[in-house]
Here is the input.
Amino acid sequence: MSTHADPDKNERAVARRMLDAFSNDDDVASAAALHAQLAERAEREGLLDVAYRTIDSPFGALLLAASRAGLVRVAFAREGHAAVLERLASEVSPRILRAPQRLDAAARQLDEYFARRRKRFELPLDLQLARGFRRAVLVRLQRIAYGVTTSYAQLARAAGKPAAVRAAGSACSHNPLPLVVPCHRVVRSDGTFGEYLGGHEMKRALLEMERA
Amino acid sequence: MRRPFDEIVSEHGPAVMRVCRALLGAFDAQDAWSETFMAALKAYPRLREDSNVRGWLVTIAQRKAIDQLRTAARAPAASAEPERIDGAQVAAAPAQPDRALRRVLDALPPMQRGALIHRYLGDLPYADVALLLGCSEAAARRSASDGIASLRKVIRKEDT
Here is the structure.
């Protein structure tokens, strides 16, 4: 072998050696710990605009996100959690970090709901992702009690626009806070379930759970 | 489309950590890392969407490292191994990096040292290395290549 190894090879050897020297075996654990500390410090110093965490549920992983005002988004796995976080970054704030603490109460109450130990949620909500009529619909939705269903037509009337049945349906299908704002309790006038962001099966299972 | 800051931390955190370690040493690196990402989080909503995020972060890290070195220089009475009062929250202390390499790296002329750190630990293209060092891209390449030649001597000596 030549004593003058080719420069690219020299470069690669030095690059690898430097990476080895300044990386650590425990970097993965250490990076996770620093990342978590960063989120805690951001929360303390008022720089955390959106905190998020995921929880397990009988219907798959749920993403929970909260602004400082309250719970701002609940998302099903089928929505793609990464895509949901990107939309939150555009629509609410890009200052988003995984910070489970702010969502402790929401996580606990959802666990209790799935275990049939809770019939209403007591959480501050931030409805900023819904505007105008859609927000009016969400406000009305919050008054539909556990185990009760209503129709899209009744919902439209209650929200102040009796003719806006399709818009009421659209407000439900774009509900940023499913489960907590119970859009699953709205069914078609003919008694069929209608659309649901979490899927048809989930809507039926939720209504059966609440009726039991 | 603005990316959530959490993704920025996951993607660039390890490279920023390597740069902080090379600039400061194992213990102070964690502080510099945290200061860097707090400053970045604060400024992030105003960062232009087409910005080079890695270069931006390493620029902040370099500034924070310099701040930290200045503070340390002003307080020579402080013990070499600062006490950690927030023990429960501190991440696992990193192991001592390769001492021989570190000594040679620290002894290099500043431009060579900076070029190697930003190019190989920050994983930045030479255009960004040049911006960080305030020189031309060609000069950044030359500095890196001179630095490589010096480090290569240490590695070769150990390998034989």
